[in-house]
Specification:
The protein folds into two domains: 78 residues; 119 residues, no CATH class. The chain is built from six helices and eleven strands. Helix 1 runs antiparallel to helix 3. The longest helix is centred in the N-terminal third of the chain and has 36 residues. The radius of gyration is 31 Å and the shape is elongated.
């Protein structure tokens, strides 16, 4: 069973590469054709004063293609950076945690990154399946799945004896939407492996030993104090 899944951030680079594969050849062909036409009709264009507009058209096509490619590369690299850092699936002993990058904004010159965090308790887990579009659908027995969207700096968490806990107490009690099912988006390499790992985690959770019943036990110094008080009462003090 795999317990941690990284986002497939390279998918954004592949999209840019696919775009270039389908558009680079036609753009180069169009520019080459226009340049040949310019060279063959250079004298006529000069006499008719159409050379400058023709050159502007060719340069505009090249500039537009370069600009679009540049923008797509910048967007792709930005998404690779943020999703590599904030998007993952972590399977703990008693919970499944899905972390997703949810955007960012700048306020008073300070950038704030938003993150969506979904906590799926295995105790309430019911089923998991992979949809046709490679999304993983997780269902619970009740609306026990907690769905948060907040500043990523506030959504820090840790595991204590296998139990999931937020560092900020506020999110332990509120700040979430309770839902019965959630989709894990198509941002990971193998959706089937995620589903199989969740099922394996559920099986492991069901085989955990039952927690020992709580029994109150006084601290040693309290017992000593009571013994002294009892001895004093017996002696008549």
């Amino acid at each position: 069973m795999k317990c941690y899944f990284h986002c497939n951030a390279n998918m954004y680079r592949k999209k840019v590469r696919t775009f270039l594969e389908y558009t680079a050849a036609p753009v180069v062909s169009v520019v080459t054709f226009l340049m040949v036409c310019l060279l063959l009709s250079l004298r006529n264009l000069m006499h008719s004063r159409l050379l400058t507009p023709a050159l502007v058209i060719v340069c505009s096509v090249i500039f537009a293609f370069a600009l679009v490619t540049r923008i797509m590369l910048e967007i792709a690299e930005h998404r690779v950076r943020v999703h590599s850092k904030y998007t993952y699936v972590e399977i703990g002993l008693k919970d499944v945690i899905v972390s997703l990058y949810a955007g960012s904004f700048t306020h008073w010159g300070r950038k704030t990154v938003l993150r969506r965090l979904v906590v799926i308790p295995l105790e309430e887990f019911e089923s998991v399946r992979v949809s046709k579009n490679e999304q993983v659908l997780v269902k619970a027995k009740s609306a026990a799945i907690r769905d948060y969207i907040a500043n990523t700096d506030r959504l820090g968490y840790f595991f204590k004896d296998g139990d999931f806990e937020f560092r900020e107490y506020f999110f332990r009690e509120r700040g979430f939407n309770a839902v019965q099912q959630v989709y894990i988006p198509r941002l990971f390499t193998d959706a089937d492996e995620i589903a199989e790992s969740i099922l394996a985690a559920k099986e492991r959770f069901d085989n955990l030993p039952s927690p020992k019943p709580y029994s109150f036990e006084e601290m040693p110094f309290v017992k000593t104090r009571k013994m002294r008080s009892l001895n004093k009462r017996l002696r008549g003090f």
